[in-house]
Amino acid sequence: MNPEEEKRATPCSSHANMLHHRVFVRNPHLDVMKDDVLYHFGLGTATHNLPAMFGDVKFVCVGGSPLRMKSFTEYIAAEICMEDPESEYPNICAGMDRYAMYKVGPVLSVSHGMGIPSMAIMLHELIKLLHHAHCEDVTILRIGTSGGLGLEPGTVVVTKKSMDATFLPKFEQVILGKTVERNTDLDQCLAEELLQCSKELDQFETVIGNTMCTLDFYEGQARLDGAFCFYTEKDKQDYLKKAHTAGICNIEMESTVFAAMCKLSGLRAAVVCVTLLDRLKGDQMNVSHEVFQSYQLRPQILVGNYIKKLLKAKAVAATVQQ
């Protein structure tokens, strides 16, 4: 990230400091466009009243699977008691087949697909959507799954730093033939708040640790079970142990671009992923479907309770002020 980007993308240090913070876009070309088409969402500034549809959004939860995000929408609806959890929640992006989007009260749920490119495309359009809708004080949370390093399966990891496959906290992208490096800092106050929320829940182990983001599920994560593999078990173990020594607790495929883009737009962001296995002990999951499903729910439970806690605190504060 260049100095100007760094200066204009200072992350918020606490929830209190988020008061009346708009979502930033860093593109002067948008100012002269008569219509901004959010193509992959099937939305646009000329065809939809985005402030009316999304202006009240305070929390955005993103995850890889459309089904997972629909499930989260049903879960959060019941948690915050705003709508009937038995209701059918329409997919706002139903006219397109790339992403799914659901909304209940101030909570927007969006799928991002798998990997950095899919996440980046979704975030460009999501950030513009929040900007066009004049949203303020937005917190965005990625909920997902990951491979753990030295952790018991089922442990939830709240990311401290997102690192690339060389164990460096950065995101690199080639723009106009040149490599641009961006910072992957995440909001540490938010991470601590999520950890405290997990302690209050006392349902499963949660830790704060570094997350490694790779470009691939197989060779990029040192797996031995892909279609191609030109390294040994020892090579794999040496690499994963180096990652573990660097403070990396889990491995996934989206966190660096997520952290970098959220930082640029001024969004308060966190990554919350459950570990499905300990990669130091193997490459494939050997648990039942029921256990797998219970693990997948853990980030939803933590984030859902966090949102519920903040909305309740906001309601109490509003009552006191009256």
UniProtKB/TrEMBL annotation:
Pathway: Pyrimidine metabolism; UMP biosynthesis via salvage pathway; uracil from uridine (phosphorylase route): step 1/1. GO terms for biological process: nucleotide catabolic process; uridine catabolic process. Its EC number is 2.4.2.3. It catalyses: uridine + phosphate = alpha-D-ribose 1-phosphate + uracil. The keyword Disulfide bond does not apply. GO terms for cellular component: cytosol. Phosphate binds at residues 98, 142-145. Pfam families: PNP_UDP_1. It is an enzyme of class 2 (transferase). Keywords: Glycosyltransferase, Transferase. The keyword Transferase applies. Substrate binds at residues 221, 223. One of its GO terms (molecular function) is uridine phosphorylase activity. Residues 58-293 form the Nucleoside phosphorylase domain. Belongs to the PNP/UDP phosphorylase family. Catalyzes the reversible phosphorylytic cleavage of uridine to uracil and ribose-1-phosphate which can then be utilized as carbon and energy sources or in the rescue of pyrimidine bases for nucleotide synthesis. Shows broad substrate specificity and can also accept deoxyuridine and other analogous compounds. NCBIfam families: euk_UDPppase. This is Uridine phosphorylase.
